[in-house]
Amino acid sequence: MNTPRRKPAVWFASALLWLATAIDAQAQQIDTIKDVYAKLNSCWRPPDSRANPMDITVIVSFNREGVILGQPRITHESANAGDDDRLAYRIAVMETLQRCSPLPFTEGLGGAVAGRPFAVTFRSRKRPPKPEEKRAWLLQKIL
Q1: pLDDT by residue (tens digit) across 66-87?
Q2: At 70, which helix (H) or strand (E)?
Q3: Is the overall model pTM greater than 0.70, yes or no?
Q4: End-to-end CA distance of the chain
Q5: Whole-angstrom Cα distance, residue 29 to residue 136?
Q6: Helix (H, G, I), strand (E, B) or coil at 58
Q7: For domain 28-125, which CATH number applies: 3.30.1150.10, 3.30.450.20, 3.40.640.10, 3.90.78.10?
Q8: Domain limits of the chain?
Q9: Closest CA to 23 of 11, 15, 32
Q10: Residue-wise pLDDT tens digits, 21-46
């Protein structure tokens, strides 16, 4: 029984697709500690605008595969934050960790950071409004 032969173009296209997928997966892998912090900060979504801006620090550990080990701990919150703000930011931090994990560690980085704690600070600062610029040469003088 004869099986139909596939055209070389089909083989070539499927090989290119496989290669592109493999390259994309490697490009997204995290290979440095700096990249770990960058990835976690890229997942950060501060609470809605009703919450006052504050800083919050969480200590979290990962296993070799980038899955969170144990329970993350909040170790610092801005002193001037109210109870409602603290709760909103704690929820936002936990949602960030859920959104980001498991982190796509390379094999080398996964072995190096497995079980080691990361202290990650998330900042949410609203920029103060710009003061109105005063230009002396534009002010009218009344004599």
Answers
A1: 999 999 999 999 888 888 889 9
A2: strand 68-77
A3: no
A4: 107
A5: 55
A6: strand
A7: 3.30.1150.10
A8: 28-125
A9: 15
A10: 444 444 489 999 999 999 999 999 98
Q: Which residue reads 């498991």 in tokens?
A: 102
State both tokens at 62. Answer: 């990962």
Q: Which amino acid is at 45?
A: R
CB atoms within 10 A of CB 103: 21
Single-letter code of the amino acid located at 3: T
Q: If we measure between CA atoms, which residue out of 133, 125, 47, 39 comes closest to residue 89? A: 47
By three-state DSSP, how is residue 35 classified? Answer: helix
| 101-140 per-position pLDDT tens digit | 999 999 999 999 999 999 999 988 654 444 555 555 555 6
